[in-house]
Design brief:
The chain is an all-alpha fold. The chain has a domain of about 50 residues. Helix content is about 35%, strand content about 0%. The N and C termini lie far apart (about 35 Å).
Length: about 70
């Protein structure tokens, strides 16, 4: 089993509000659902963007200048 998929679905569960005490059990589902959800989210530009610390802009959301955001330490 691919542990990266398990980590991805685990953290997605946290984003959706699930905690470690939830009864959410996914067994082998990440191997099948995570790639599909990831591709869907990429296609619809729903994934958070990654900031390159060596650029004053990001490639994923052109026009948004992260250098002007006081909440982000570059």
């Amino acid at each position: 089993c691919n542990w990266v998929l398990h980590v991805w679905i685990h953290e997605l569960g946290h984003c959706l509000g699930y905690g470690h005490s939830s009864s959410l059990c996914y067994g082998s589902v990440p191997d099948e659902i995570v790639p599909k959800v990831y591709r869907y989210m990429m296609k619809h530009r729903m994934l958070p963007y990654i900031i390159n610390p060596f650029k004053s802009y990001n490639d994923y959301n052109p026009g948004i200048n992260d250098a002007d955001n006081p909440d982000i330490e570059l």
